[in-house]
Design goal:
This protein has 344 residues and is of the alpha/beta class. Helix content is 38%, strand content 16%.
């Protein structure tokens, strides 16, 4: 495989680049480094077949030149995280929409197969027991900033499907459900690394609302098993697949597990949504994936449970601290508590 990974210096992208190189593929990584962490790829700099290119997916000529040198595109670049989505909504919308269109057009021109990263956010407020790929979407007002990311990703999916049906581009859509693991930054709303960092410092773990809202977390290595299997399976083209682990946990229980596994003296502190966000904030009560489709097609079966995920983050943050880095790569807390509203 000659792979182009957009957003390859990001959390999932960095792990994917590492996986592809380790299995003998050539990899070009395209990242504008606005949120990506090039240091996470530093150990790969001398690896044969690896090329890190600094640039944006909005640069059509650059993307075209890289697509011409590849046969497979993993499109992971996007503006993600609650801070960026709520504070830079217009930039996020433009990047996510126009960037994906650029990638798909280049894939069409050069005959690439393309995996398009989407998100469980496209389901909106739906809180059914297990969300299947054909689930109806339940969205809030289009004027509510929270939903701009979901709307952009839904349109990305529509474009990917149309490029497959109308232009025969071999596209696969992967809807990620709360992927977590080592090297994930807490800055942009990712709750597990944030809780772990707070617990290691014996600080209060702050939960907004009553803590009964639930999520399903999937280890990044398991997620990579799914997407690398899908891109190589002809029956996956034109399809959309949930990538997650259907182990549901409340945010209250998640905080308690982090405290127990770190041996922390931290307590759990609750704030109301109004205190955290002001009036009008919309949260999602449940989010659990149905992974029947991807399991049936490629045998996707995540093996790492929640404790495994938390342990991997604890080890990484502890190692970072011992090596003289900043504990957990924790950056300043976003005013108003936006860092706790989890978005994929």
């Amino acid at each position: 495989m000659k792979a182009l990974v957009t957003g390859g210096a990001g959390f999932i992208g960095g792990h994917l680049v590492e996986r592809l190189l380790a299995t003998g593929h050539e990899v070009m990584c395209l990242d504008d480094l606005s949120t990506g962490r090039p240091e996470s790829l530093a150990h790969l700099s001398d690896t044969p077949g690896f090329d890190l290119v600094e640039g944006t997916i909005l640069d059509a000529d650059l993307v075209d030149s890289l697509a011409a040198r590849s046969d497979t595109i993993f499109h992971l670049a996007a503006v993600v995280g609650v801070e960026l989505i709520l504070r830079r909504s217009l930039k996020g919308l433009r990047t996510n929409l126009h960037g994906t269109e650029t990638v798909l057009e280049c894939a069409h021109r050069h005959g690439n197969r393309a995996l398009i990263a989407s998100t469980s956010e496209v389901y909106g407020r739906s809180s059914d027991d297990a969300l299947s790929e054909e689930q109806d979407r339940v969205m809030g007002s289009p004027l509510t900033r929270r939903w701009s990311y979901a709307e952009a990703k839904a349109l990305d999916e529509t474009m990917a499907h149309l490029y497959w049906s109308d232009r025969s581009v071999r596209t696969v859509i992967a809807r990620f459900f709360n992927i977590a693991g080592p090297r994930q930054s807490s800055r942009y709303g990712m709750v597990i690394p944030k809780f772990v960092a707070q617990a290691l410092r014996n600080e209060p773990l702050t939960i907004y609302g009553d803590g009964k809202q639930t999520r399903s977390f999937c280890h990044v290595s398991d997620a990579l098993d799914g997407i690398t299997a899908l891109i190589g399976h002809p029956e996956a083209y034109g399809g959309v697949f949930n990538i997650g682990r259907p182990e549901e946990v409340s945010i209250q229980r998640l905080a308690e597990r982090v405290i127990a596994l770190t041996g922390s003296s931290s307590i759990v502190r609750h704030l109301s949504y109004e205190q955290a966000y002001g009036d009008g904030y919309e949260d999602i009560p449940r989010r659990v994936p149905d992974i029947t489709r991807v399991r049936d097609l490629v045998g996707f079966d995540p093996s790492r449970d929640l404790d495994d995920i938390i342990d991997s983050v604890i080890r990484e943050q502890t190692d970072t601290d011992l090596s003289g880095g900043v504990l957990g790569s924790v950056l300043p807390v976003v005013p108003g508590g936006l860092e706790n509203a989890h978005v994929d």
